[in-house]
Amino acid sequence: MPAPTEFLTYIDAKADIFIKRLADAVAIPSISGDAKHRNDVFAMADWLNAQLRQLGVDTQLVDLGRHKMDGEDLPLPPAILGRIGSDSSKKTVLIYGHFDVQPANKSDGWDTDPFTLVVDEKTGRLIGRGSSDDKGPILGWLNVLQYHHESKLPLPVNLVFCFEGMEESGSEGLDDLVRRESKKGGCFEGVDCVCISDNYWLNTRTPALTYGLRGLSYYKVTISGPARDLHSGVFGRTVHEPMTDLISLLSTLVSPQGDILIKGVDDMVPRADEEEKAIYAGLDYSIADVEESAGASIALSADKVSVLMGRMREPSLSIHGIEGAFSGAGAKTVIPAKVSGKFSIRLVPPQTPEAIDPLVIDHLEKAFAKLGSKNKLSVENLHGGKPWVADHRHWNFEAAKKATKAVYKQDPDLTREGGSIPVTLTFAESLGVNVLLLPMGRGDDGAHSTNEKLDRSNFIEGSKLLGTYLYELADIAKN
Ligand SMILES: NCC(=O)N[C@@H](Cc1c[nH]cn1)C(=O)O
Ligand SMILES: [Zn+2]
Ligand SMILES: [Zn+2]
């Protein structure tokens, strides 16, 4: 059963209204990683909950308890669980998305206010934090619901929703909820497959289906010594300096070529054979794509296969920042008393945070001992998640392939994503069903970066894709 033509024309006709709704969503700065914005994440949950209810979805807000962030005790934003349809002759699809966003300040280098959606008429870009990650895709599902609600047409499948507000901060509390609701009598009982739209095409021209994600282990390494910040003229070359120790430690983690220098981490991963390399060689990708989306000619290699393997099937270590360091304007001559380096490792099978943690801690302790410093070292794992790989020959992927062909008139790339959505594996394991990642945005959307955007055509055609996928699933269920 193809998607009704009226559905496709409806999405086109309502495009401006849908973009206005995206602007309303972007205007709520639901930054989960910043305690000051916790109320905004709650406001975003209320906004989304109201939208779902208006469109006929039966929802509940689930309290996930409290957590500690940067020493502060905070309430966790609620998860939104919803259901529409309970026809036992139809497939039941679980849709996951997240309504929290990464931090964004104009001063980071944005050209416009990050929380005011700017519609660039010349380029067709919808610019704003969360436009692509992940408010645009969530609103894509709302667009599909709106057509069926207004046309008084039943959906071709039953839908179960699970939307969270902590994805960008380790999905705190969600794994337990998913496990609980997957049991007999839970909200997720009877789910046949899962669809997540929360990643990106590999390039700017070819739609993609994604069957793998890297896992993540995020660390905070703290060096402390002096009882207070010191004057470098008075104490320079007089005391062990925490910042000097920290920079030395961070420089032992990864080479400028991206090799992870922590013993055992890179070695855990089996090498790719020729058959696997051929998969990467066959993808529609070039060095120009990575350099275009990075905004500079800085690829680690001129070889496309090696660059793709670095992103999709090898671990990576990135250093993100230093808390406590002087970072303002001017030339403050301070010796900071306590500094914390933040870094994370993206994991691939068979790596897990549990297997990586001891290697990281041992490495940092040994490297610190070699410094002969009298300062103190502490290491924390802030959060983590395992990598995930799915069977892309499954009917769930088959339906998405057909839908892509119908909407975009081309076959999708089959990709593994370099990013992490830790709950993906929890869905796969708790429900025992196939999980599909069906990205809406392009490889140059700048998620987590400045000037994040979603192209208007990706929002509109992407909404058509999500709806068409549901019709293709229903078709498969009939045969
Ligand atoms: N679109 C998925 C995504 O961006 N996931 C984040 C998850 C994360 C974990 N810690 C902070 N963010 C990612 O960085 O991959
Ligand atoms: Zn996301
Ligand atoms: Zn993200």
Automatic annotation (TrEMBL):
Cofactor remark from the record: Binds 2 manganese ions per subunit.
Keywords on record: Hydrolase, Manganese, Metal-binding, Metalloprotease, Protease
Any GO BP: proteolysis
Cofactors (names): Mn(2+)
Source organism of this protein record: Cyclocybe aegerita
Lineage top rank: taxon: Eukaryota
PROSITE patterns given in the database record: ARGE_DAPE_CPG2_2
Protein name: Peptidase M20 dimerisation domain-containing protein
Binding residues for Mn(2+) 2: H98, D133, D198
GO molecular function: metal ion binding; metallodipeptidase activity
